[in-house]
TrEMBL record:
Residue ranges of domain DNA2/NAM7 helicase helicase in the record: 202-405, 503-575
Location of the region described as Disordered in the Swiss-Prot/TrEMBL record: 357-387
Lineage of origin: Eukaryota, Viridiplantae, Streptophyta, Embryophyta, Tracheophyta
Protein name: Uncharacterized protein
Compositional bias of kind Basic and acidic residues: 357-370
Gene3D superfamilies, per the entry: P-loop containing nucleotide triphosphate hydrolases
């Protein structure tokens, strides 16, 4: 394929091409594990990248009706004559962020439309852009092409690319790129560094990983690619930060990359924390560290501490310092040398200002006709006497002003200029700042007179007599400070730059550590840039191999350290075609598949051992040890009562079914209700105990994530001790919380699990919790077919960690809530049999009961209803709950029972009769959940149905059998003749027989 820009390829697609999901199917081939040449390697990614770009555009076009928009103010052919032939246009957008929250960014692919809302069919219309704007235009966002375009350009560099030396070494299985250098392997790392690492709190495997990486950085004989394998909780980020700190001290120019802004920010934060602990002189040395990227995407407003290393902030700071420092130093030198002429000039200036003020005032009075010259002159003399500033006041005020500005400027230089450019003068700068502080203190002390101070600041050593010792100290320190400042004025060798782009280049060219996403590193490639030596990639298993080519275009990179875990999620790929072609595979994963050794971090410090047990066995071949901290008793937190809520549980929800939303993502409303109830219980418990608890809810399906978020709402947002985060598995990679609740969603008869079977996704979900991991799912569905989930459920059963949700009263109520909300009637009937399977009374329900329960919107009220039903079915009776509602006639009214649920709702029930097997048995019948307003009509209707009862029927319903405080059902024998009569009359009991439970 000829080298053309990716954007040109995109613009060549017709609407039919965009909607054709098979446009590149026949051209995409599986990316091999080994390659015959660099050209073969690069070309293998071309069509998978095109297909992935096409999938992005296809999805955005299909959903264009929901795309964010922004108003266009101006469109015209480019003013640049060289660009007019290329169909390049100048477009001006409305500056304010639109109602949809969209503000166009560099690399956005947009659709220009004359309507704010666009459908796919509208895209078939053609129009012309005219010089004169005659109608409103809108930019409709489709997709951002920046990263894919950078990958494309890196691929098209061909064998000319700067990073090809390393690429040539990773093409085939015979590569020695991961092996130790024979010439360097006996090299002994400096004893200071080795001792420092040994005395740190790194464990043995972490220390070894850092030392081996440092040894690699010193090699000049070969290119290397080393793998550090960091399973969940093993201190991967800590290890990387320690490695980077060592490279920083070695002045080894290193680019630190990650696939996402979040990952870049995390590792930068960890290094910055370590640097602040180790740096002894304020923030000097931070100038060697640069965080490069997009402020908004990195969410830097949430991380104030990163402002010290973020490039855009640094450019602003240095822009002021570069242009101001020398003027401030010279101003202080002049003041310390001889402030008297400046003081005299100040007095003259103040006098002139007062004269001008008096002249202006006199003119105003003349215009008003009330001038009194004599009185005015007297007032002027008084003002001169009262307001004239003393020499001591002038010097103190002027000194403080210059000193404060100089301190800010010197601090900005020390903190932001790379140490190689300022190291020789840092000590003098710190001395000067200390002396300036001391001089200021003495200036504000007990100075006797202006005469004494004049002697101190006399330009020659003629004191004219003795003075206070403190003034002698002042003179000495003033002289020392003056000497240092004069030296600094000539010794500080930094550029006088006032152009932000030049300052950016200066910072990047001289930094030791540069943090950036792999994609954004494309903007670091500068002319005459000092070569980089190392590329350190965090979360390397999530970075597409072809995306790694972007930073490899930078000059000088000799070694790559890849840190990641190929047992966790790979890069996200939208196209199924590209996914099947292994387009999302990382270099880390490919090298592992070729047998390259990966250095394992072998001790986890995150999970309670009950949580780590299964993933360690399933994914890591039992190679991971539990750290001492997680084995301590204090690490076992009991956050809810009951065996169900131990460190590790599978909570079986055998009811409800999955359903697809309009975006074809699965959700399960019964699990939504159960998860929400568990979160609510945790919150209530945290209020009682006062413990700080963080909860994460994970689901593999976005539909379920949105449903749970909607159910929970923001009810916990204002709590300081309780936090809830609901995200997809992808959104939780790298995260951790005290408690993790997993909603598996799938609930069907054939055991279909979809992409739930992907082991990497499962591994991420199972390894996010510190103290408690509770997995909510349908055990029958998950064990129907052989999968990792069958292994998990069976493991939970074998360990005694398998629990049925319906055996917990609060979760049982939540299940019914979910069934009612999703109108899953069949499961409601099945749920009834479970609720009352151990009850002393048989239970039946009126036809309107569950519809009336659904009308109860309060979750607390619903839970109270379920609790009442279970207690009543076990013989509990509470006269205090019973309400005396005189709404029915004498006789039948005595059958109806009214139990108060809350101030608004009432449970209506009776003792009824069930005739079967020649027996007449008392049963409970629950008619409805009613309100006071509905009660008269309901009672009237029930009273009408009671009229058919015989006196014997009524008496039998009223009989009570007491056993202590419990009321138990009674039973009577009936004759065969009575039974036949009952059957022939198609009585009520025949209908009830089909409804009874137990």
């Amino acid at each position: 394929m000829a080298h053309s820009a990716l954007v040109d390829m995109v613009f060549s697609w017709s609407l039919e091409d965009m909607l054709n999901q098979n446009l590149y199917r026949k051209k995409v081939e599986k990316i091999p594990e080994t390659f015959s040449s660099v050209s073969h390697y690069l070309n293998s990614f071309t069509y998978p990248l095109l297909e992935e770009t096409h999938a992005d555009v296809h999805a955005s076009v299909k959903n264009v009706a929901h795309a964010p928009t922004c108003k266009v103010l101006y469109v015209a052919e480019s003013a640049d004559k060289n660009l007019r032939r290329s169909n390049i246009y100048d477009v001006q957008f409305e500056q304010e962020i639109s109602q949809t929250g969209y503000k166009p960014q560099m690399g956005d692919l947009i659709l220009l439309s004359d309507a704010r809302s666009v459908r796919v069919g509208d895209m078939k219309r053609s129009t012309y852009i005219t010089q004169q704007k005659r109608y409103d235009l809108y930019a409709v966002y489709l997709v951002n092409l920046t990263t894919n375009n950078r990958i494309w350009e890196a691929l098209k560099q061909g064998t000319e690319g700067k990073g090809m030396n390393i690429i040539r070494n990773v093409l085939d299985a015979g590569s020695t790129v991961g092996e130790e250098c024979n010439l360097c392997s006996s090299h002994v790392i400096g004893s200071d560094l080795h001792g420092e690492l040994q005395s740190s709190d790194l464990n043995a495997s972490q220390t070894d990983a850092v030392l081996r990486s440092i040894l690699t950085s010193k090699c000049i004989h070969k290119n290397s690619v080393k793998l550090i394998w960091g399973p969940p909780g093993t201190g991967k980020t800590k290890t990387v930060a320690s490695l980077l700190w060592a490279l920083l001290n070695m002045k080894c120019r290193t680019l630190v990359c990650a696939p996402t802004n979040i990952a870049v920010v995390e590792i930068a934060m960890r290094l910055l924390k370590l640097a602040r602990e180790e740096i002894k002189s304020d923030c000097y040395g931070l100038g060697d560290i640069v965080l490069f990227g997009n402020e908004v995407r990195m969410r830097l407003k949430e991380y104030d501490e990163l402002s010290d290393i973020f490039l855009d902030y640094r450019v602003t700071t240095l822009g002021n310092c570069f242009t101001e420092w020398k003027g401030l130093v010279n101003s202080m030198i002049r003041l310390l040398k001889d402030p008297i002429p400046q003081y005299i000039a100040c007095l003259e200036n103040m006098k002139k200002m007062k004269e001008d003020e008096r002249d202006n005032a006199r003119k105003d009075k003349q215009m008003k006709g009330d001038l009194d010259d004599d009185n005015d002159d007297d007032n002027d003399d008084d003002d001169d006497e009262e307001e004239e500033i003393t020499f001591q006041e002038y010097v103190s005020k002027k000194f403080k002003q210059i000193k404060n500005n100089l301190s800010i400027c010197f601090g900005g230089l020390c903190n932001n200029v790379p140490s190689t450019c300022i190291s020789e003068v840092v000590e003098d700068i710190n001395k000067a700042l200390a002396l300036l502080e001391s001089v200021e203190t003495l200036l504000n002390g007990d100075i006797v007179s202006d005469d004494e101070l004049t002697k101190i600041f006399a330009p020659h050593e003629n004191t004219g007599g003795e003075y206070l010792p403190s003034l002698g100290i002042l003179r000495t320190q003033r002289n020392e400070c003056l000497k240092i400042l004069i030296a600094l004025a000539s010794k500080i060798s930094i550029p006088n730059l006032d152009d932000n782009n030049l300052i950016r280049e200066y910072c990047l060219k001289n930094a030791t550590l540069i943090f950036s996403t792999a994609s954004s590193s494309a903007n670091i490639n500068l002319a005459d840039m000092k070569p980089l030596k190392m590329l350190v990639v965090d979360e390397a298993a999530q970075l597409k191999e072809c995306e790694l080519l972007i930073p490899l275009q930078l000059p000088g990179i000799q070694h790559i350290i890849l840190i990641g875990d190929d047992c966790q999620l790979p890069a996200t790929i939208k196209s199924t075609i590209s996914q099947e072609a292994d387009f999302g595979r990382s270099l880390f994963e490919r090298m592992v598949s070729l047998g390259q050794r990966k250095h394992l971090l072998n001790t986890q410090y995150r999970m309670n051992p009950s949580i780590s047990l299964f993933p360690n066995k399933q994914f890591y071949n039992n190679q991971i040890l539990d750290g001492a901290n997680v084995r301590e008793k204090a690490y076992k937190r009991i956050l809810l009562k009951g065996d169900t809520y131990g460190p590790y549980s599978f909570i079986n929800v055998a009811y409800g079914s999955e359903a697809s939303n309009n975006k074809h993502s699965q959700k399960n409303m019964v699990e939504v209700a159960v998860v929400s109830k568990i979160v609510s219980n945790l919150y209530e418990a945290s209020i009682v105990t006062g413990e700080r608890v963080s909860v994460g809810v994970i689901s593999p399906y976005n539909g379920q994530v949105f449903a749970i978020q909607e159910k929970i709402g923001d009810k916990y947002g204002k709590s300081t001790n309780f936090s809830v985060s609901v995200r997809s598995v992808d959104g939780f990679q790298g995260g951790e919380e005290d408690v993790i609740i997993i909603s598996t969603v799938r609930s069907n008869e054939d055991g279909s699990l979809g992409f739930l079977t992907k082991s990497q996704r499962t591994n991420v979900a199972l390894t996010r919790a510190r103290y408690c991991l509770w997995i909510v799912g349908n055990g029958r569905t998950l064990t129907h077919n052989d999968s990792i989930w069958k292994e998990l459920v069976n493991d939970a059963e074998n360990r005694g960690c398998y629990f049925n949700a319906d055996e917990d009263s609060s979760l049982a109520a939540a299940i019914i809530d979910g069934l009612l909300d999703s109108e899953q009637i069949e499961d409601i009937n099945r749920m009834k049999s479970i609720l009352f399977r151990h009850a002393k009374w048989k239970v039946i329900f009126g036809e309107a009961f569950f519809s009336s329960l659904k009308d109860v919107r309060s979750a607390e009220a619903r839970e109270e209803v379920i609790s009442m039903l279970k207690k009543l079915s076990n013989g509990w009776r509470d006269p205090e709950k019973e309400r005396d509602l005189k709404v029915t006639e004498i006789g039948t009214s005595q059958l109806l029972k009214f139990y108060e649920v809350d101030k608004e709702h009432i449970l209506v029930w009776t003792v009824d009769l069930l005739k079967e097997n020649l027996q007449c048995i008392q049963v409970l019948k629950f008619w409805a959940i009613s309100t006071c307003y509905e009660m008269p009509d309901l009672a009237k209707s029930l009273n009408h149905s009671f009229r058919k009862y015989t006196t014997e029927d009524i008496d039998r319903r009223k009989f009570k059998c007491l056993e202590g405080d419990l009321e138990l059902p009674m039973c009577w024998e009936i004759t065969p003749e009575e039974d036949r009569e009952e059957s022939n009359s198609n009585s009520l009991s025949a209908r009830l027989a089909s409804l009874y439970l137990k």
